[in-house]
Amino acid sequence: MRIGVDVGGTNTDAVVMHGGQVVAAIKSPTTEDVGSGIVQAVREVLVQASVAASAITSVMIGTTQFTNAIVERKRLVEVGIIRLALPATTSLPPLVDWPADLVEKIGRNVVMAHGGYEYDGREISALRQDEIIAAARRFNRAGIRSVAISSVFAPMNQNMEKRAADMLRAEIPGVAVTMSSNIGRIGMVERENAAVMNASLMELSKRVVGAFRTALKEIGVTAPFFISQNDGTLMTSDFVETYPVLTFASGPTNSMRGAAFLTQFKDAIVVDIGGTTTDVGVLSQGFPRESSVAVDVGGVKTNFRMPDILSIGLGGGSLVRDDGARIGPDSVGFELPKYGKVFGGDTLTTTDLAVASGAARIGNPALVAELSSSVVARGMERIHLMLEEAIDRVKTTSADMKVVLVGGGGVLVTRKLKGASEVILPKHAGVANAIGAAIAQVGGEVDRVFSYEGQGRELALDGAKREAADRAIAAGADPASVTILEVEEVPLAYLPGGAVRVRVKAVGNLAGHGAD
Amino acid sequence: MDITLDRLHDLARGAAFLGTGGGGDPYIGRLMLQQQLSGGGRVRLIDPSELDDDALVVPVANMGAPTVLVERFPNGPSAVQAVRKMERLLGRKVDALMPIEAGGVNCTLPLVVGSLMNLPVVDADGMGRAFPELQMTTFSIYGVAGSPVVIHDEHGNDVVVSAVDDKTSEWLARVVCMRMGGKAEITLYPMSGRDAKTKSVPYTVSLALQIGGVLGAARSTKSDPFAALDGFFRAARPPRCFKVLFDGKVTDLWRETTRGFAVGHLVLGTLDGTGTPMDIDFQNEYLSARIGELYVATTPDLICILDRETAEPITTEGLRYGQRVKVVGVGVPPVMRTPEALAVWGPRVFGVERDYIPIEQMGD
């Protein structure tokens, strides 16, 4: 039996699954320390399922904590940024297309230094120790403890980023360094963006992953735990601690896969209303529609493989202002039970509107009884208009489509939505993300330099694909469900013998736990 | 007309379409122009007819492999230095700039340079799209000499190539470009206003704006972008053939940066895995498309790979395993299909051993 947990900005959901069956499901508030919320949710769900902690074989956690931090510009640390490239790339410096409010949070501590590689492996310029040390001292004086380094053509040669990282570590004790080569592919702007976002999350990632670890220990779950990645596969907790950015979009992936599992629909629009944001995506032939172009996260361009999701600042904890005319984008998040009016607080949220309108029974309805009915009506109408606009924006044809509501905020929808042929709220819709995490796919990866000269490309690639598939199967994937998700080749022109860095990723459903 | 910030998305998207896979990441071109214009810069796009016959017009471009450009961006100031060098070589001031190709980054780079130098940019180009090599221009085909070619890099190096013909210019300049790191800023084909009017493909920057506008409008009205493109090219004067050549996904992809180009091969399978796959070869740009042994489009006609739902153009360096795409073909104007022109950019030039057949007469 396995546990799927979804740690959202507002709620922590947990499900116990046995094969393809949902045995028990519960929703409980996310806590500020994250950990006690998990403890409570997992304890409750184990009780509900009448299962002992020792009977759990694995735990899969999905979390939107890191995406939310970027979107809300909260809980981020100031980042030092070093690009190894001079005299090249000056036309587009780091942070070039970033929203101003996000830059304000992470600071503009940008150092353009000499270094970087040409496409053929030569150095653009030599790395200069004096520049890196000067940058380190500047960062140190500013109290910066997290630095992102990006060098031109780093995916082809990591060496210069590594050397600069070592220099930084020698100069700033305890500094966390994110190297772009460990995160992204070819494409300087997007890879560097991902590295900078990752660096800004370093404090939060230690806290959150540490909280996961302690919480499970406290409950007595000794099974290994994994965290969902953007492509719907799982990562180990140590890896996430260092590369939290790789969890981006795992929330939407989980909710869409969860929605597909719950409805068995092949084509539909999935609207996941959480506490802080609503993610709208499209199920196409049973899979989340992927974006084929670069995707924005919180207004920043990335080139991760992600579902094509539109995220808007609307959730169950969104603030209501201007007598209902303005909703969000900020949210009280997990502090809804503290600040929401129905819970005795003094902040008007969308949940209060839903309760006042009679659509939901949460907290104490008497506490919103005196709300003006015109404010409630205006606010509820605004919520529906926001959703309709989002649905319209993700559609690529004007024909009406089925709309599946998932997430805790489904109660906000009280009437038919324009653009929807029907609106479906499936059983367990509120915990679709946790279900998506629990049915997460397992991946197998190969990332190695191959020589094409002797064996030829075809044979080398076939071998790499087979190896990736074998690794997925070894990790627990059902052999019949294994498919090749990604093949990427970076020719290393500076090495002899037709050397190519080959990255292959294979994925499959957990054996016996298939989504279909 | 002034190119303004609100038109940049349309321009970049349309330039990516005309780039037929090459010409460099349009996002980078847009960002560079956005930086320039939001910093208070202005740039004026002029009708070729506004040029004096004896004006000095100089095309300016970034030369190199698109796979390099996404790591090492084009550089405006380096291009300005290349133009200055050309002025010193010719002993007179440049009156207007022009794109050498309307596709990709080279559609927007002249606008950045025009803004930096306070020079107008002519609404025309030498390729009517993007092509991988310097001699592949109507300028060259109809008698303007490419030399001198000024090649300039960010370190401050420059090399001037004066060659006996334009193919030799390309041959020599490419080596310099590779030594400079696989990308360099260049100026070449200095010409009179008269030549700029008569030996170019006119109105191609505004064509990029229009195509981008059609795609943007289809997206905002939720109408089928492929039908919108079909309607647009049908209504063009003269009408241009538009065909959807394939609907499927990327099943195999090989690309490498070699001889100074992004060279590669792409296989697309149908979505349900049945039927014959499509093969596409590229050298910076998509050059030929065939289904089995049957060619359905070759140069100089446009072969574009678009996201199968949003019709966002996908460049060769943006291609990924598993992407779902549609391949479309667009016919080019008669000036690009003369025997002289086909000798420079017809299929045989790229190793496809067959005569050029206009796309409207192919396949089916």
Topology of this protein?
The complex is a heterodimer of chains A (516) and B (364).
Chain A: E1 2-7, E2 11-18, E3 21-29, H1 35-49, E4 58-63, H2 65-72, E5 80-86, H3 100-106, E6 109-114, H4 129-141, E7 146-151, H5 159-171, E8 176-179, H6 188-200, H7 202-219, E9 225-228, E10 234-236, H8 237-242, H9 250-263, E11 268-273, E12 278-284, E13 287-288, E14 295-297, E15 300-302, E16 310-312, E17 318-321, E18 326-331, H10 336-339, H11 350-356, H12 373-394, E19 401-406, E20 420-424, H13 432-438, E21 442-451, H14 452-455, H15 457-474, E22 483-491, E23 499-508
Parallel strand pairs in A: 1-4, 4-9, 5-6, 5-7, 7-8, 11-19, 19-20
Antiparallel strand pairs in A: 1-2, 2-3, 9-10, 11-12, 12-13, 12-16, 14-15, 17-18, 21-23, 22-23
Helix pairs in contact in A: 1-7, 4-5, 9-13, 11-12
Chain B: H1 8-18, H2 26-38, E1 45-46, E2 56-64, H3 66-69, H4 76-90, E3 96-99, H5 105-117, E4 121-122, E5 124-125, H6 138-141, E6 149-152, E7 158-161, H7 166-179, E8 183-187, E9 191-192, H8 193-198, E10 201-202, H9 204-221, H10 225-235, E11 242-258, E12 261-269, E13 278-283, E14 285-291, E15 294-298, E16 302-307, E17 324-330, H11 339-345
Parallel strand pairs in B: 1-4, 2-3
Antiparallel strand pairs in B: 2-8, 2-9, 5-10, 6-7, 6-8, 11-12, 11-17, 12-13, 13-14, 14-15, 16-17
Helix pairs in contact in B: 1-2, 1-5, 1-9, 2-5, 4-5, 9-10
